[in-house]
Design a protein that fits this description.
single chain; alpha+beta; Multidrug efflux transporter AcrB transmembrane fold; 2 domains; two-stranded antiparallel ribbon; 12 helices; elongated
């Protein structure tokens, strides 16, 4: 694991936009390791007993807690400082056996220096190491894409058995996107059901909600235009833009339905609804965009926290404006043509299989 971490750190240091590349593995420190000599068990001693007595002598054993000024003071019993100041004092250390005898430590145990592990880090119950770095610019996704294409395949083949994954900001974003997509699907299904009940139609809610993906596309173009990376808060702005877009489409389709109920032809109804609702839809988009401009142009740190929401909302509304006035009326007309075609096919089938029975004279006739 240490070798794999070292290789990954070497690769990350090749990027000019990264600095302070580090990991959370503590460096191994030298420690004295005890191993029992053959025959020590005959004295009734185990490695645990010997280690415990050494620890009690040098670190101490808590025997009492004394309350003092509202706090507990630990009373530790151990060797005096003069007897535990140096490592050589272990040469004269004596271990007490189960029958009360004292034997020299060096006669029952071997003392050797060995690298010791200060801490074992685990992640999802597996031994883990974390490699991180600071960025001069927000290029995390570009670096991750380059690592996926040019480094990780060979790196994983060099260290079989290792599992890698993203943590921190990347892990939080992945978890958020997974959760928010589920909530979006639930919200869109609820919207569709409400619109289907209100319009008494299955396809008109689809024509109204078809502009939602274009709000997402508009948010992407908006982030590219202002040179900003998509963030978690951008998805909240997309949801807000979808609400504005659905409201505009709802007004347009509802007015078309009212005109058709008055007996107007569908094409005339679409043109009339587009002319009548052009001003409200335009003013909704323009006022939303202009109202968000001060926040988009602000360069303070406080505004940068909310700018992804503002950029996604403003750009999504602008792109969806054209979808509302051009694409939704076209889909409305296409849906009417499909409905007429389905009606003709239905009448043809009824006439073929239902009305055909009465076309032959009966015996009574």
């Amino acid at each position: 694991m240490r070798e794999a971490v070292a290789d990954l750190e070497t690769k990350l240091r090749e990027y000019d936009t990264l600095y302070d590349v580090r990991n959370n593995l503590d460096s191994a420190s030298e420690e004295i390791r005890l191993t029992l000599k053959p025959g020590a068990e005959k004295l009734g001693l185990t490695l645990s007993d010997v280690s415990r007595q050494v620890r009690q002598a040098y670190f101490g054993e808590e025997v009492q807690r004394v309350p003092r000024e509202g706090q507990d003071v630990k009373v530790m019993v151990r060797y005096p400082a003069s007897s535990r100041r140096s490592i050589e004092s272990l040469q004269g250390f004596r271990v007490r056996t189960t029958d009360g005898r004292e034997v020299p430590l060096t006669s029952i145990a071997n003392l050797e220096y060995a690298p010791g592990i200060n801490r074992i880090v685990r992640w999802n119950m597996n031994r883990a190491a974390r490699v991180s770095a600071d960025m001069k610019e927000n290029v995390r996704q570009d670096i991750m894409d380059d690592l996926e294409e040019n480094f990780f395949d060979d790196w994983e083949r060099s260290y079989p058995g290792l599992i890698r994954g993203s943590i921190g900001q990347a892990e939080g974003e992945a978890r958020f996107i997974k959760q928010v997509m589920g909530l979006y699907l639930t919200a869109f299904f609820a919207m569709y059901m409400l619109l289907a009940i209100a319009f008494k139609s299955y396809w008109q809610p689809l024509a109204i909600m078809v502009a939602i993906p274009y709000a997402f596309v508009g948010a992407i173009y908006g982030h590219v235009a202002v040179d900003m990376t998509m963030a978690i808060f951008s998805y909240f702005g997309i949801a807000a833009a979808a609400g504005v877009v659905i409201n505009d489409n709802l007004v347009l389709v509802d007015y078309c339905n009212r005109l058709r109920e008055r007996g107007m032809d569908i094409r005339e109804a679409i043109v009339e609804a587009g002319v009548a609702r052009f001003r409200p839809i335009l003013l909704t988009s323009v006022t939303t965009f202009v109202g968000l401009m001060p926040m988009m142009l602000e360069r303070s740190i406080q505004a940068a926290f909310l700018q992804p929401i503002v950029v996604a909302l403003a750009s999504g509304v602008v792109i969806a404006f054209f979808v509302t006035l051009l694409m939704v009326p076209s889909l409305y007309a296409i849906g009417d043509d499909i409905g007429k075609l389905a009606g003709r096919f239905k009448r043809f089938v009824i006439g073929l299989f239902g009305g055909g029975k009465n076309s032959f004279p009966t015996q009574a006739e």
